[in-house]
TrEMBL record:
InterPro entries: YgfZ/GCV_T_CS, YgfZ/GcvT. This is Folate-binding protein. It comes from Methylomonas rivi.
Amino acid sequence: MTTPQQPTASLYHLTHLAIIEVNGEDAGRFLQGQLTCDINGLSPEKASIAAFCNAKGRMISTLLVIKTQLGFFLIVPAGLLDIVTKKLQMYVLRAKVKLAKPENLMLAGLNQPGNIIDFDLPTQDFYCSDNAGAVFIKMPSAPRFLCVAPLSAAERHPFKNLPTRPLAEWRFQDISVGLPWFEASQSEQYIPQMLNIDQLDGISFSKGCYTGQEIVARTHYLGKAKRQLHVAEVNEILPQDNDFTVKDAETQQKCGDILALASYGSITRLLIVLQTVDDNPKNFILDNQQHTPIKLLPRQ
């Protein structure tokens, strides 16, 4: 898969994401009963993608779960922050857990930091390192890192002088590697396997019960999901706010939905959720006036 050349040593303000801080004596036990990943397998050096599901196994949100010395950071789409917080709060009951939306933390993306960073950064995907109170998480693909840093420490970090690049470039990279971030309008539509959360090692099938676990486990043990996430590309710029669907060019029937998209230069990458593709090759198009051809890409 050919990816446009990415800028080096760049900074991104990740305003499309938000943080939920989960602390308290029962924080780990609480999240173990709500999220698809194995919370007990995390450490301050190892984060994980996860899904937060409703009782029917439909994803309320995708999350990046980071263990800290005091508890956990949950990184979620900004548009789902209030929804996820409210739904998690419903399950707290008498558990010794505190959910907060920290105002003293910032989210930044670093691309190709190279010699700008004078401390060791992790080399494996979703592994973490801590420096001056900031946590750096290695994201898939080229050397790029999601950083959670205290606002008070931001000026002390070497990346503060990096040139800022458009957020669309970061989103383009996330889409290119199949990270299934989505918005509130798509919440509670998909089970985790439809969005490849299992392929991102975000589901534990041995950890025990959590909300939605029965449906997620049944899909795993009885066969693959009826729909699946694919990375795709079109050779034009598409508007971010669209309601296009995916059609079979031959039958003109709808066969998929767009989960996310981002443009870089003259190319748009998309995450599309297709009805399970059989062995017969198909030509896919967008349901727009141009019937734009869609090319499916292998995951990076």
